[in-house]
Amino acid sequence: MEQARPPSGGGCQGPPSCFPMLLGGQQLSLVTVHQYLGVWLDRGFTFACHVRYLRESASTRLAALRYLSRRSLGASYSVLRTFYIHAIRSLVDYGAICLTGLAPPVSRSLEVIQNNALHIMLGAPPWTRIVNFRMESGLPSLAHRVALRAAVITLQLIRCRPHLPVSALLRRLLCRPPEPATQRLTVDNTLNIIALESVLTTLSDARSSLMFIVDGTNTTISFLNAFLGRRPHIGVTAFEVSNGQDANTTQAQLSRLVSQARQLRQVSWSEMVVVVSDDPAFLTAFAEWSLKGRLLVWSTRLIAVTRIPVTRHRIMHKTFSSMNAIIMTINDSSKYYRFLQRPTLAVATEAFHASEVQGTDRSGRRKDHTAEYLAQGMNFSYRYVQTPDGTVGSKQQDGSWSGMIGLVARREADFSIGPFSLTDSRSKVIDFTYPVLVQSDMILGVRGSPEVNPWGFFLPLQPMVWLAIVISLLALPTLMYLLSYCQHTENQDGKSWPEDTFTMVRVLLQQEVSREHNSWISGRRWWRGVGLAGWMFAAVVVVRSYAGNLMSVLAVRHIQQPYQSLRHVLDDPHVTMVWQTNTSNVQYYRSVESGIYREVREAEEAGRVRHHTMIEFFNVINTMVRSGNHVLVELELMLFMMIGQHFSITGRCDFYTSKEWFLPVILSMIGQKDSPLVPALSKREVDD
Predict the structure, then answer these.
(1) Which of 212, 279, 407, 672 could, after both became Cys, cross-link 238 (CB 3.0–4.6 A)?
(2) SS3 for 493?
(3) Cα separation of 669 and 681, whole Å?
(4) What SS3 class is residue 630?
(5) From residue 411, how far is each of 275, 434, 551, 670, 674 by CA, in Å?
(6) Residue 419: is the preceding peptide bond cis (ω within 30°)?
């Protein structure tokens, strides 16, 4: 097999080996980079060599994209964009998890791939700004794309393989504690252990010895401890295998385990082996090693305790079907996340939420459908605890927290629905559930009154068309004058050019041309007739198009919506922004040192930013925003809800939202630090 060659460029070739190493009589070469599963790994894990490999691989595909963009082939922008996403950007998506920590120079060199593709797709000049490319194409930067792909892969790993050590590490980094079974809301281990005891009582006798084998995860170890706690008088042999490492280490540990367990079986009258794991690969590997090492003979009974769904047992069926074994599936459904006794939990809220959800609807149910859903599914009742300041919460000068976050952090409330944006400072005092949704801030402004645009007669034609008409009116008479001058067919008194220009204007305005101009097509001046005929044809097309569009343009009234981005608001010194009090976004723009959000902080220092609580927003939009000199900056979900409620009350749509989204946040529910309620809420929201 031909060895993969590293991409061209400095830093990818290895130094010569000073001490040659031989393997099978062949000398091994020392390299500083190596390709594994299509990704080039270097000594410092900078992935600079892999980025060069991506650029070289993308260069040929960019050439194909450039060929498709030629006018002769007629490929549309949508076709070019699809080709880029599936043929070029997919190269970066494949190894995105490895590209999250690139150094700034390497990251900028990676962005060149997409920048070149955008130049080709949009056909823009090379001096066009990259931000305009991204706005026009709707494509994020490759750095944001890599971060998004890495986040998706991380969440899939945490959700699908929660018992791996890397999943536990990621949960700690994401400020979500692991889910030990001892912190479950109900004693689900008790029910599972009772079921296991029933099986053991049926299959074993007094002379049987019991052997437990666990894979080393928190769940399996807690299961074993709970079992020993219920039956402390019996003798149990327990083996633990550190699962989650590389496959070779796990295989070596299983080999030693089977050898020691076989010695124990040989001195026992009969043996009952209970293996506890939620990893199908571990269960299958253990069964295979048990057969190889003759641990499991026909008289040895094997019970595999797992939470793997029945639909995935097909992977283990072939191996376990040749043994005296049964698989005991623990039903880890949401019913085991219910309280055995119905407690009353305190839910932190603020005045706006409390005023909206208190009371019942027409069917007699409480209006807080989210809290009702959680209470019904987890078997608890609840009461509201309102924050005194009516805010979400922020960190104070003395280190304490205000608002709803403060209530939960001080354990005055058990949890809060919110939702709340996930930040590092908040995660130190509270725990977040799995993300509920991702939202961004938008700008809410008042619509202008419908009016006719006084410059509407220019709108039927594009500015380039108007420019072409003006240039033609100047260029065509000049050309005729120069030709007449060269052929000496006109009197050179300077009157030919004004007369030609006046004639062109008369044709454009659909006025009659005098008869004396019929002499243009006679004799040696036939080219004047050709020019006049061409101009008449062009004038007919332009005039008909203008007349057809003018009526429709003047019939539509123009509504002013001036603030479509944060830049528009900052550039207008007469408008004031309204932000919600003590939110994470407010803390963010107060802490930045550069960029547009520093300008927001400077605007706040200049008195152009006001802060109000959420319950005051409806009064704000009906007074301040409606006056036209204020805009409201808030999450899109809240803005759409307020616009909808205003329309339901008044029957009018007086407000608009900006086209620009900014300051995206991940929103979740919150609970007390290290509370078992948080993983239960996460499971309820993810599974259902």
Answers:
(1) 212
(2) coil
(3) 8
(4) strand
(5) 40, 20, 67, 12, 11
(6) yes
- How many Å apart are CA 287 and CA 282, to the nearest integer? 9
Nearest residue to 322 via CA among 306, 342, 302? 302
Give the pLDDT confidence of 412-439 residue by residue, as tens digits: 899 988 788 888 888 888 888 888 888 8
User: Rounded CA gap, 508 and 543, in Å?
Assistant: 7
Question: How far is 591 from 598, CA to CA, in rounded Å?
Answer: 8
Q: What is the dihedral of CA 253, 254, 258, 260, to 10 degrees?
A: 20
Residues 630/646, Cβ–Cβ less than 8 Å: no
Question: Are residues 609 and 603 in contact, defined by beta-carbon separation less than 8 angstroms?
Answer: yes
Write the CA distances from 518 to 478, 499, 522, 685, integer angstroms: 19, 14, 8, 84
SS3 34: strand
- Contact (CB, 8 A) for 302 and 273: yes
Q: By the 8 A CB rule, do 196 and 303 touch?
A: yes
Other Cβ atoms less than 10 A from the Cβ of 322: the count is: 10
Is residue 406 within a helix (H) or strand (E), and if so which, with residue range?
A: helix 403-409
Q: What is the DSSP string of 553-581?
A: HHHSPB------SHHHHHH-TT-EEEEET
Provide the token pair at 517.
Answer: 């101009």
Residues 402-411 have pLDDT tens digits of 888 889 888 8
Q: Which amino acid is at 229?
A: G
Distance (Å, whole) CA 327 – CA 525: 102
Q: Name the 3-class secondary structure at 628.
A: coil
Alpha helices in 104-215 (DSSP H): 104-122, 130-137, 142-160, 165-173, 188-203
* Alpha carbon separation from 251 to 216, 443, 650 (Å, rounded): 14, 58, 71
State which amino acid sits at residue 168: A
Residue 567: which residues within 8 A CB-CB, separation 6 or more?
596
Most confident of 112-121, 218-227, 601-610: 601-610
Contact 619, 627 (CB under 8 A): no
The pLDDT of residue 491: 47
What global pTM score does this model have? 0.44
- Structure tokens belonging to residue 414: 């058990």
Q: How many residues does the chain have?
A: 688
Angle between helix axes 526-555 and 463-487 (nearest 10 degrees) is 170
Q: Which phi and psi (to 5°) does residue 660 adopt?
A: -95, 135
Q: 210 CB contacts (<8 Å, ≥6 apart)?
A: 200, 204, 234, 235, 236, 237, 272, 274
Q: What is the pLDDT of residue 1?
A: 41
Given a contact cutoff of 8 angstroms between Cβ atoms, the answer to whether 97 and 153 are in contact is: yes
Output the CA–CA distances (angstroms, integers) from residue 244 to 213, 223, 239, 241, 477, in the order listed. 15, 18, 16, 9, 84
Do strands 437-446 and 655-657 pair parallel, antiparallel, or not at all (unpaired)? antiparallel
Left if phi > 0, otherwise alpha if psi is -120 to 50, otherwise beta: which for 83? alpha
Q: What are phi and psi of 230, to 5 degrees?
A: -85, -25
Name beta bridge partners: 276: 214, 305
Confidence band (pLDDT; 50, 70, 90) for 247? low
* Closest C-alpha among 112, 101, 108, 94 to residue 47: 101
Residue 179 has pLDDT above 50, yes or no: no
Q: Identify the pLDDT of residue 180.
A: 37
Q: DSSP character for 443? A: E
Question: What is the Cα–Cα distance from 131 to 219, expressed in whole angstroms?
Answer: 48
- Residue pointed to by tokens 């001036």: 562
List the end-to-end C-alpha distance of the chain, in Å, as a whole number: 50
CA triple 235-241-246, angle to 5 deg: 175
Residue 89 host element (H or E):
helix 89-94
Provide mean pLDDT across the span 594-599. Answer: 88
